[in-house]
Design goal:
disordered C terminus, alpha+beta
Length: about 400
């Protein structure tokens, strides 16, 4: 969130996994993966898909699940802050067209969220960067986004009115993402343990983040994996990502490359990009938060206007920023006592409570959220239920 009466920078108020589980009572629990077949993840990127998610006996469109999660997040922040937000910004992939954006807008209106601006992810990342470093008009920034399940490459330009515009965008299709790198590390560990060995995906994700740039090893389930061994395993995938990124740049010569997404915690990504582009490669200590923080800044700018505050003194074109949370370039070896990239930052405490059903506004939304017992015990429905179904 970003405060209207405070600094321009955003703060992280809440971090929770994008997971929803349908309970027997017909409510949703948030943030915890539950019984298979009754929980959903990855729905935010499937908004507008014709195939809904199957949760128990219910069929739930991705846009409705996304709107319910956003509603829950807003409710949690309101409970802590004691007031409603003046405006809300929600990110989406840059490749979305009017149909997907319209579906998400309609779903959010159905749960009572009206003052909402949709922002493409690379523009949000650029707004977050512009809070710390001056970006002059017509300067270009490239955005390398690597999350758990998605990869994209974008080029944005600073407009004269101090906003950003999208110049080019490529959405990865057959590229490895953060979850795939976890699986590659999992395969290395299982190869040492044998078929009877047990290792969890969570252990591999934490170990992947712990690889430093200096050739250190990590221990997963009692198995030591050297950094060089892991880098050798993922090198073809990293080269594929960087190759797609450089092709997306085309003739553009960006002033900087912004790394966003949790997958960019792997220092090998920054190393590969630094050797492939002739500009600085920048990343926050927690790159998975960059887009969310940029969204809060974008929501603030909707209310106060882009000219309400002076730009930072330093320029992203000529000099390096001295902001402590950024590294220039990422490929530089950090000091031995610096472990920013070895472990994720502590998350704010989250007391996850069940998601209460929204008031009955749209028949389709409420019918999806009926308790499971209302359908499971009968093979036919009444005429009223049929009417609601239509």
């Amino acid at each position: 969130m970003c405060r209207l009466d405070g600094a321009r920078d955003a703060e992280i108020a809440l971090v929770v996994p994008s997971l929803l589980q349908l309970t027997d009572a017909g409510t949703f629990s948030v943030g915890e993966r539950g019984v298979p077949g009754w929980s959903a993840s990855g729905f935010a990127r499937r908004v507008g898909d014709a195939v809904p998610f199957s949760l128990g006996p219910e069929m739930c469109p991705a846009e409705e699940l996304t709107a319910l999660l956003i509603m829950w997040v807003v409710g949690e922040v309101v409970a802590r802050e004691g007031e409603q937000p003046r405006h809300l910004a929600v990110s989406h992939p840059a490749g979305w067209g009017p149909y997907r954006r319209g579906q998400l807008h309609a779903a959010m209106r159905a749960v009572g969220l009206h003052d909402v601006t949709l922002v493409p992810e690379p523009l949000a990342a650029a707004e977050n960067h512009a809070v710390r470093a001056r970006v002059v008009p017509d300067a270009t920034l490239a955005v390398f986004s690597l999350g758990s399940h998605a990869f994209s490459a974008s080029v944005v330009r600073r407009a004269p009115n101090r906003t950003f515009e999208l110049v080019n965008h490529v959405e990865g299709v057959d590229h490895h993402t953060g979850a795939d790198f976890d699986d590659l590390l999992l395969g290395l560990v299982r190869g040492r343990l044998g078929k009877d060995g047990h290792v969890s995906a969570a252990e591999c994700e934490a170990a992947k983040r712990a690889f430093g740039p200096m050739g250190q090893s990590v221990v997963v389930s009692g198995v030591e994996i050297a950094r060089d061994e892991f880098v050798e395993e993922i090198r073809p995938s990293v080269d594929h990502l960087v190759g797609t990124f450089t092709r997306a740049l085309g003739p553009a010569q960006p002033d900087a490359v912004l790394l966003v997404g949790g997958g960019c915690r792997m220092t090998v990504i920054g190393d590969a990009l630094s050797s492939s582009v002739d500009c600085r490669v920048l990343a926050e200590a927690a790159p998975e938060h960059s887009v969310a923080k940029g969204l809060a800044v974008a929501a603030r700018l909707v209310l106060v206007g882009p000219d309400a505050e002076p730009e930072p003194f330093e320029t992203s074109v000529l000099v390096h920023t001295r902001e402590a949370s950024l590294r220039f370039p990422v490929g530089e070896a950090p000091r031995p006592d610096d472990d920013e990239f070895s472990a994720p930052p502590p998350r704010p405490p989250v007391d996850v409570s069940p998601l209460e059903l929204p008031p009955r506004r749209v028949k389709r939304v409420t019918s999806v959220l009926k308790p499971a017992g209302r359908r499971s015990g009968s093979s036919s429905r009444s005429r009223d239920d049929d009417e609601d179904g239509r």
